Amino acid sequence: MRYLVLIAYEPGIWADADAELRQGYVDAHHAFERFVDAHGERVSSAALGDADTATTLRGPERTVTDGPFAELTEQVGGYYDVRLPDLDHAVAAARLLPASYTIEIRPVVGVEGYESA
């Protein structure tokens, strides 16, 4: 199965962290990556710019505005696109990420009649 693991956290969590806490975050991400590599495959991953750097398209006219869609106390700050045998493995991997994160795991699904180019 393929899963998208979304990572959300309070804005400023990295900027406010001391060197020891930052290293803890890095170590947790490496543990997650080792688990996925041992049990499946990492398709892609990336850190994302802060929500205030987002560009949003809204409404039927697809009006372009700066910033996120809604006011958030947490923001999506990164993701992993992974292939793992099942949801239990995805949950086990996600538990290795820092506890201060809110993690959302979604299966990647096909849409009948649509193939990405």
Quaternary structure annotation: single chain
CATH superfamily: Dimeric alpha+beta barrel
Element-by-element helix/strand order: EHEEEEHE
CATH class: Alpha Beta
- What class, by secondary structure content? alpha+beta
State mean pLDDT (0 to 100 scale): 89
**Main sheet: strands, sense, barrel:** 4 strands, antiparallel
- Number of strand elements: 6
Describe this protein's structure:
- The protein has helices spanning 19-39, 87-94; strands spanning 2-9, 41-47, 55-58, 63-66, 75-83, 102-107.
- The chain is built from 2 helices and 6 strands.
- The model has no long low-confidence stretch (mean pLDDT 89).
- The protein has a 4-stranded antiparallel beta sheet, with helices on one face.
- It has 117 residues and is α+β, with helices and mostly antiparallel strands.
- A hairpin with a 4-residue loop joins strand 3 (55-58) and strand 4 (63-66).
- The chain has a single domain, classed as Alpha-Beta Plaits.
Overview in brief:
With 117 residues, the chain is an alpha+beta fold. It has helices at residues 19-39, 87-94; strands at 2-9, 41-47, 55-58, 63-66, 75-83, 102-107. The protein has one domain (2-107): Dimeric alpha+beta barrel (Alpha-Beta Plaits).
